[in-house]
Amino acid sequence: MSNLPQLHSSSSTIVYPNDLQYEEKRQIWNSAIDKTPAAIAVCVTEQDVIAAVQLAKQQQWPIAIRSGGHHIGGFAMCDEGFVIDVQQLKEIDIDTAKQTVTIGAGVLAGELNAATQQHGLAVPLGTASTTGVSGVALGGGIGYLRGRYALTCDNLVAARIVTADGTCLVVNEQENADLLWALKGGGGNFGVVTSLTFQAHPIGTDVFAVDVLYDFADAATVFERAQAFIAQADDATVAVNMTVAVLLPAPFLPDFLHFKKVIMVVALYNGDVQLGEAATQPLRQLATPIVDQSGVMPFLQLQQKLDVMIPPRVNCYGTSLYFDDLTPAAQQALISVATTSPIPSTLIQLWSLGGAVNRVASDATAFAVRDAKYVLLVDAMAMNGEDEACQAWLRDLEQALRTVSNGTPYINGIVADDTVVARAYRQNKDKLIDIKTKYDPHNTFRFNHNFVPKA
Ligand SMILES: Cc1cc2nc3c(=O)[nH]c(=O)nc-3n(C[C@H](O)[C@H](O)[C@H](O)COP(=O)(O)OP(=O)(O)OC[C@H]3O[C@@H](n4cnc5c(N)ncnc54)[C@H](O)[C@@H]3O)c2cc1C
């Protein structure tokens, strides 16, 4: 640990490559990304973040921001630049009267869900406990509550952010409202967010959820019937997640399910628990189920369902695409690519959209994609050196889905390339570049889906 420049609080540290903690601190979820920053500021308070940004400004270091460290593109780390690590900003403050929640930028989704559920409340988050709320929210945030309450970013009502000049700004509808608009989907382009305030919703602690396993051999029927059901269902109440996966051997699985390729259909009924069973019945009869564990369950149990399939750290190759509809051609293309996935630990997730997500105007927030009916998230997790096979399969997948998807990526599920910003931000791109130019003219925060400031 270095005694060179200090941050603000005594428990904060700056970790350099020769320090013992360096290897641990530079690790992120996607272990295929191996970056070696010049230094990592491990912040404990907002004052530490301000001190870290001011230090970077003096040294003219570019900054990467590390919260939950789960972005597939490894944006949380950089080569040679300065990482500001906000993982230890863990406050959670719930205002039960206003049903709002203010959190520190290091809170994880599982931690926030556990806290809000003590009051029967929930903030719409993603489906995994280990992701950072900050990264999820700033890039969108698609989870089970999307149908009624839209994206995580749509529920952001205020924030505090340290911008490139080292000042901390209050962001809400009254103050710096342009930044509030930009933070709703514009990612880590504008500064280090130290706290976020969300609208929470009184969902109670129990929900009705569909939880069915179908044989992948029935994929054609499952996709066709699921599409027909979703097209006529009330999209505010029913959010459907279909995941093609191979079940890895686990003590809680019977032998006949080991290494079986399945389609998991998981859906939340976001309404009166008593009505959920009847309203979602068709999802349990898409084909002959292998296992059907649908029923009333704690919301927290539903939120933790995917966690067992996600290693704490893994070499991951993934992509993301939206679909305007699940046409027969799209269904066929998805089945083809799922059939050829090279390794067992691949998740091919297809989630219904619509509902509140699509009722927000495409220019009302930075997050522009408000017309797609489905989003696909693909994660090929190479656990035994299958990295090249995963990358080759992913290239084939992108080619195969090019014409049947709408070609737009979900920015929280795709690595950076020259085309992503224009494809994902559509008509909002120019306004985002203007806001970037105003708050970060030298592109200090550049390790992201980057809006290059105007010269
Ligand atoms: C296992 C897994 C499951 C997932 N499930 C879902 C899901 O269900 N729904 C969904 O929508 N997405 C999901 N995602 C994608 C997820 O939304 C992104 O990976 C997201 O970036 C994770 O945020 P993080 O804080 O963990 O990541 P980080 O890598 O720490 O952050 C990503 C980037 O966000 C920005 N950022 C983060 N914190 C701040 C901050 N405080 N201030 C400014 N910028 C910041 C920075 O650019 C940062 O580099 C999943 C990802 C994984 C790996």
Automatic annotation (TrEMBL):
Its cofactor is FAD. The lineage of its organism: Bacteria, Bacillati, Bacillota, Bacilli, Bacillales. InterPro entries: BBE, FAD-bd_PCMH, FAD-bd_PCMH-like_sf, FAD-bd_PCMH_sub1, FAD-bd_PCMH_sub2, FAD-linked_Oxidoreductase, Oxid_FAD_bind_N, Oxy_OxRdtase_FAD_BS. The keyword Flavoprotein applies. Residues 33-203 form the FAD-binding PCMH-type domain. It holds the Pfam family FAD_binding_4. One of its GO terms (molecular function) is FAD binding. This is FAD-linked oxidase. Keywords: FAD, Flavoprotein, Oxidoreductase. PANTHER family: BINDING OXIDOREDUCTASE, PUTATIVE (AFU_ORTHOLOGUE AFUA_1G17690)-RELATED, FAD-BINDING PCMH-TYPE DOMAIN-CONTAINING PROTEIN. Belongs to the oxygen-dependent FAD-linked oxidoreductase family. The keyword Flavoprotein applies.
